[in-house]
Amino acid sequence: MIPQRWQHHIDLDFQFAEKALKADGRLMPTFAIHTKTGIVIVGAAFESTRQKRQIHDLVRLMALAQEAEGVSALGEVWLAHEDAAPGETDEQLLARARPPTQREDRREAVSVMLNYRDPATGDVKAVSTLREIERDETGVTGLGAPMQNTDPTGPTAQLLTEHRPTEVQVAMARHLLPIFAERAGLSLQGFEVSKAGHA
Fold this sequence. Notes:
Number of strands: 7
Strand content: 25-35%
Shape: globular
Largest sheet: 7 strands, antiparallel
């Protein structure tokens, strides 16, 4: 079960997404870094798989520099349902199924992937929540009921370090962050590395 604090953050993430969709008709990929003193919002437009990996690396480094307790990744995704044939394994189904982007019956949804650190154990947990985008002739009207997966995988399920960072790791992240961003051609506009993690 997701702690109430983190369920509240998931709800806030969906409120943010719905507001953006109603205002602009789309949701830019966005990360929310949850620190002890607030939330850092990172807009993350990317055009290639390489840029997407760089953004994930940058967000991981920012989260480490901020001593983040959680990180959310928000974005639009396509959904489609595929039934397994009798006797078919999950692996066989995945091997034959077409990606939702290539299907006529696909549906739009918002995905929120939350990584958070369990306060009692320090272990990192991840939960993925999807809500279908509802539209009419005037545009986006809202988001459907949540569908949750408490055992997600992939790069957005690994945005926090596995163990609580040491002071040395945090200091190193703060030192490397501007260097990494410059070499990757990414902007840290509005993010003060020297004050990361402090009020």
